[in-house]
Design brief:
The chain has about 260 residues and is of the alpha/beta class. It is built from ten helices and 14 strands. The protein has a single domain, classed as Vaccinia Virus protein VP39 (Rossmann fold). Helix content is about 30%, strand content about 30%. The chain has an eight-stranded mixed β-sheet with strand order 6-5-4-10-11-14-12-13, sandwiched between helices. Strand 5, helix 4 and strand 6 form a beta-alpha-beta unit. It comes from Tepidanaerobacter acetatoxydans (strain DSM 21804 / JCM 16047 / Re1). Keywords: Methyltransferase, Transferase. Pfam families: Methyltransf_21.
Length: about 260
């Protein structure tokens, strides 16, 4: 066990990479695995440890309570930059605390917004019991067949990642896990991709959460693939790259880690 109850429906957890996290004890999505093993998504954890270097500029889109944000902050060091987006107000406050207790807040910029295709206000559906499943898409019947959950609807600010176009020569990595919002996030970073400013994008592909955006997202990814400048991989259990094609991934309906590399 990696967790200790500290009151106020919170646990203090020690992660496999040596970080400390305050997590909600009542969450049924991320918290059980963190309490038991101190880890989330080990293939991605291992990939980041192997590949993120000091001085890198990286983005964590869908930062949640900060498991990957803290890790990225440690890896890029004081000369690097991390930009973390988490629109859930409660998780955003935990994210801030977790950066502070790990002393990486000097290199991390937090935004309480959603990453989207444009600057606007959008509805956001907060999952109360499975806190890792909040989405810009209203949860459908398929979701409730799998999860006994409660949903709060709020309105949030959103912005595109193309806001950072011309601000950095290189963005080394963008990690995106936003439960169905990935298509709109990609629409909002076309300049970063086309200019080859961003080098690697790692994202989740989840048909159930993407809903009506599934087909158009697959079409967009295939368009990138045909350009010959973009190659796709999955991650092995050890966090190594495994070559793949979008059509192969699309047959699965779900892939936790799609790695998109943009080559010059």
């Amino acid at each position: 066990m990696r967790g200790t109850y500290i009151g106020g429906q919170r646990m203090l957890v020690v992660t496999v990479y040596g970080g400390k996290l305050i997590i909600p004890s009542m969450d049924l999505s991320l918290s059980p695995e963190l309490i038991i093993s101190g880890s989330l998504e080990l293939p991605l954890t291992k990939y980041l440890i192997k590949n993120i270097k000091q001085g890198f500029t990286v983005f964590d889109i869908g930062a949640n309570l900060g498991y990957f944000t803290v890790l990225l902050g440690m890896l890029v060091g004081p000369t690097g930059k991390v930009f973390a987006y988490e629109p859930n107000p409660y998780l955003n406050s935990l994210l801030f605390d977790n950066l502070s207790i790990n002393y990486v807040q000097d290199r991390v910029t937090i935004s309480n917004k959603a990453v989207y295709s444009c600057i606007t206000k959008i509805p956001f559906y907060i999952t109360k019991r499975f806190m890792g499943n909040s989405s810009i898409n209203r949860h459908n019947d398929e979701y409730f067949k799998l999860y006994s959950d409660q949903i709060d609807k709020i309105e949030i600010d959103s912005e595109p990642l193309d806001n950072y176009f011309d601000k950095f020569d290189t963005i080394n990595l963008i990690k995106i896990d936003i439960e169905g919002g990935e298509y709109h996030a990609f629409l909002g970073m076309q300049k970063l991709i086309q200019s080859e400013t961003v080098k690697i994008i790692i994202f989740e592909l989840n048909k159930m959460m993407l809903q009506k955006d599934w087909c158009v997202f697959i079409q967009l990814l295939n368009k990138f693939q045909k350009s010959k400048r973009v190659i796709f991989h999955k991650l092995s259990d050890e966090g190594d790259l495994v070559p793949t094609k979008i059509d192969e991934i699309a047959k699965l309906d779900f892939c936790a880690h799609v790695v998109m590399q943009i080559r010059p």
